Amino acid sequence: MKEILVIRWKSIGDVAFTLPAVNHLRAHHPDARITFLVSRENRFVVEAFPGIDDIWTIDRALFRGTGVFKGLANIARLIGQLRGRRFSLVVDLQGYGETAALTRWSGAPERWGCARRGWRRKAFTRNYAENQHLHPAERHVRMLESFGIQPGPIRNRLSLADTRLTEARAFLQRAQIHPDGGPIVYFQPCTSAAEKNWPIDRYVAVATHLRSQGAQVVFGGGPADQAMFAAARAAGFAVTDGLPAATSLALLSLVRLVVGGDTGFLHLAVAVGTRVVMVARRGPLPLGHPEWALIAPDARIETNTVADVIARANEALG
Questions:
Q1: Residues 208, 122: one domain?
Q2: Which segments of the chain does DSSP mark as H helices, in order?
Q3: CA distance 213 to 311
Q4: Number of domains making up the chain
């Protein structure tokens, strides 16, 4: 059996952007065992990849502070796993020095990656010159195709576990949001950087308007985002406080529309087939649907107005 390893540690959206490449590998090697190495907090994304057989995780938090020695022990165990599996192909879609080193230490005869200069180039048997003008997901696919993987359509659809969908429906029931009521709109206002965040009061203004038109609204985010949701709670909106990330992912498939910034969960919504309105300064745009993005013409996200977003949301809701 051919053994293939794909490496992408972070972040949520960037891990999601590897899905079309994984699907390409699966189509080209239908009988291979494909393993994915991802950071522990992003495992839930890869669990929804239909073409993955095994998932290995690494806890990158161990390399910070006093946990560095545990981190090194973790790496030593990982190298043993890599050697023991005897991979025939390793594809590094992360591009870190650490992932290049692991690719080299795997001992795989075929090692693919993107290294422009320095010692990392020696880690790979094949190097791809990235086209920065392409969407990240398209770049990964083009790399594989340039190395002999048969070209094909970009397939970007996650597969959700029934247990996660059941948990998501239970959350909606607790929040008194009903499938047979008005359209459910999910707001994901927080991104990974403050300059990418549209003001929370504007999201609340859009949500209030949509609720007045009969929509059912829920605000979502991780544990670090909860402090920003005081205005949403004060306005009477449901918030996914403490909901596991995997359940929040399933929730995205049960709503009619997702409104948010350039954030991983918005890109996951696209991959479960849900319409989005992305409020952003720049890309990456929703894969396959660049028209779903509302990009500020001057690269200042505040330029996007409440009226602009309401208009886009109404268009999406029909």
A1: no
A2: 12-16, 19-28, 43-46, 68-85, 97-105, 136-146, 162-174, 200-212, 230-234, 245-252, 264-271, 306-317
A3: 13
A4: 2
In angstroms, the CA 72 to CA 78 distance is 10
Query: Angle of helix 97-105 relative to helix 68-85, nearest 10 degrees?
Result: 40
**CA–CA distance, 46 with 275 (Å, rounded to integer):** 21
Classify the C-alpha dihedral 47-50-56-59 as positive or negative: negative
For residue range 148-181, list pLDDT tens digits in order.
999 999 999 999 999 999 999 999 999 999 999 9
Q: Does residue 208 fall inside a structural domain?
A: yes
The helix-helix angle for 136-146 and 19-28 (nearest 10°) equals 30
Enclosing domain of residue 242: 162-317
Tokens for 96? 């870190």
Residues 6+ apart with CB under 8 A from 191: 197, 260, 261, 262, 263
Residues 272 and 156 sit within 8 Å (Cβ to Cβ) = no
Please compute, for residue 111, the number of CA atoms within 13 A of its CA located in the half-sphere on the CB side.
Answer: 21
Determine if the pTM surpasses 0.70: yes
Question: Residues 293, 280: contact at Cβ < 8 Å?
Answer: yes
